[in-house]
Amino acid sequence: MSIDETLLNKLSEIDSVSGDERAISLSLKSEYEGYADDIVYDNLGSIFAVKKSKQANAPRVMIVGHMDEAGFILKRINENGTIKALALGNIEATSLLGAAVRLKTRNEQIFFGTLIAFDKSGAVLDQSNEVLVDFGFENKAEVLENDLTFGDRIAFANQNRVSSNGKRIFSKNWDGRYAPLMGIEVLRAVQDQEFDFDLYVGCTVQEQVGFRGVQTATNLVKPDLGIIVDTDKAFDYQNDLKEKNGELGKGVLINFYDTTVLPNRLLLRTLKDICSKHNLLYQYYYSMEGSDAAWINKLRVGTPTLFVNVPIRNMNTPSSIMDIRDYDAAKEALLLLLETLTAEKIQEFKEENR
């Protein structure tokens, strides 16, 4: 397997539901320290490793994705010992009945539980975007004795698995682990390279609840070029498809549209040319959802942006699926892109629409 499976398992064992990303941030910090000239934060918790150029007044390139994952936040303790929790993120309701979850209290004690239906039909997510969780407590007093409290985060329990053919990985939180994993592997790969730009590689917080961290992070970094590493929904197997869009195993996504940003056309062409020249798998993609890229693209005076994404089946469910070949293509394309970047090339991207 080309992915560092040990690193992936380490990252996947850390819960990082939106607003409670400190544990994953600390893990990233320990990884970044060996490859960074500096580590910087915004005041919401987004973290970046900085690889400084020797050039004075060098432009800044920002490689970024989010490290938070979809989950739940405790909002009520019922008399019968069950927990009412509010969903954080766009969670697929049909995936939830019987899903295994875990809660870590503020004194680091972990409780495992499961999501249960709130009515006879088996529905789990109600009209208020809330769920019922059973941690095995018999009554409210027992819950309180164990220090569960309002605001505690509840995450899907981890269940990493590799398919029998070695090509796909099942994980509960690919949408929140692709960027941390990719960032660390990119930093490792370029540790001995010199660039004429300052390279910022990192992760933002609170993407699942409204693209919050990327706004403060962009104001911190002040990038001249933004490269977003994220996941997109795969539409390649459903019975009612009118067209396939994002096929597992077909390569990195050249995402030319989402509802909040139109990526820089010269950057898109550059990524496509790199993939073609080096025989890397790639596929065009469009998204009908928003992304972190919108804020990087439009904050301050504007920044040319590019996605280097991969497709995921079962996004934001207890078990999502990524193809290793897509990840490999995305990583190789990103590394080759960094090799081609110069201050002059970055300026060309900035002037594309002039």
UniProtKB/TrEMBL annotation:
Keywords: Aminopeptidase, Hydrolase, Metal-binding, Protease. The keyword Metal-binding applies. Pfam families: Peptidase_M42. InterPro entries: Peptidase_M42, Peptidase_M42_aminopept, Peptidase_M42_dom2. SUPFAM superfamilies: Aminopeptidase/glucanase lid domain, Zn-dependent exopeptidases. Belongs to the peptidase M42 family. This is M42 family peptidase.
